[in-house]
Amino acid sequence: MSGKEQLRILEVAALPFPSRQGTQVLLDAICRGLAARGHEVHVLVYAHGAFPFRAPYRVHRLSDAPRFRSLRSGPDWRRIVLDAQLVVEVRRLAGKLRPDVIHLHNVEAAAATLLPPARPAAPCVYHAHNLMEHELPSYGSLGPVAVARSLGRQLDTVLPARADLTLAVSEPTRAGLLAAGADAERVVTVEPGVDPSDLAAGSLPPPPPADQAPGAPQRWNPAGPLRIAHLGNLDRYQGVRRILQAASHLRSTGVAVDFVAVTESEPDGVRKEAHRLEVPARFVPHGSLAAALAAVADCHVAVLARHVPGGFPIKAIALLQAGVPVVATPSAVAGLGLDDVVWLAENDEPPALAAACIIAATDPQAAERCARGRRLAAERFSSAAAAERVEAALRRVL
Fold first, then answer.
1. CA 340 from chain center: how many Å?
2. Domain covering 226-379 in this structure, CATH number
3. What pLDDT, in 10s, does the model give residues 50-72?
4. How many CA atoms, within 13 angstroms, populate the side-chain half-sphere of residue 56?
5. Which of 27, 346, 360, 379 has its CA 20 to 30 A from that of 120?
6. Which string of b and e fits 26-54 if b means at least 16 CB within 10 Å?
7. Among the ranges given (32-46, 78-92, 221-235, 318-332), the one the predictor scored with the smallest mean pLDDT
8. CATH for the 8-194+382-395 domain, from 3.40.50.2000, 3.90.1150.10, 3.40.50.12780, 3.40.50.620
9. pTM for this one?
């Protein structure tokens, strides 16, 4: 830590933990990175997670009542009860641990800590992983879109005003918070970072050196099907329907396509949509990150089609690590500085996405661009680099 004193940090997140979803993966990476830098890290989360794991930090959990096992994001009546528990527990734990700083991930943890009276004495830092103005309407369960958007914008306004400092996961996120009225001096961008071994509890071999050339991406033979991969959950905001529509468009032009989803989500809804569009679809259990990346690397291209502005799709880092050509819609990567390492569609529409898939799959310079993306993931977006950025930001409030 370059002679700097150890910090006691309380990380708070209203979510199941661990799981393979982006926020959970990033939370684990931040905690591991801060622990590796010599800090005492505690994390408060829901009672359940997707799998057992070992961590170099202390995990505290809410009570398992009401019993809740869903890994999905979005509103649920049980979350309301759990978040009411969180109001009490974060104060109890802060009083017991006396942390130097409390690091609040996403809107529920921030609201439970910052909005009720008698907030904890320690400085509170809100980590905005997304813009709620755009996130809330994407769930489709909070009434009319305009109402959900208005509520989200209020949260984007109020929470940064109540926090001692706000960390934005990307420049577009910061810009959205400033547009909602946040003080520019109290909102800083802290880019994420994850490594292939994160959440693996030491069960994976170490990743190869960043300067080691990755295996060449799969070359597509037009005589066979073009395998298009999606990594991660199948929630609507991920743009999976758009990927299927792009695949359907390719099939209408005579290109054979196979859609491969590497996911832990229930696939029935997406399977029905693929069947309706007459797109052959295969669903591969996510499993370990190493297994997921291997399944993605067996495809010709991977697609990022998330259509919720702001945020940072953590899967983008994993896909760069996989060494597969990554095709992205403009909305998915706008403002993230990835244009040099992904194949960007001209617009968000399925025909443009389909065209970009063909360009990526047939690009003679694909191996070079994939290697460049892998180096970017290993350097700029590593857990160690991200932990250094987070630590510097947390120290600003002390």
1. 21
2. 3.40.50.2000
3. 788 889 999 999 988 777 766 66
4. 15
5. 27
6. bbbbbbbbbbebebbbbbbbbbbbbeeee
7. 78-92
8. 3.40.50.2000
9. 0.87
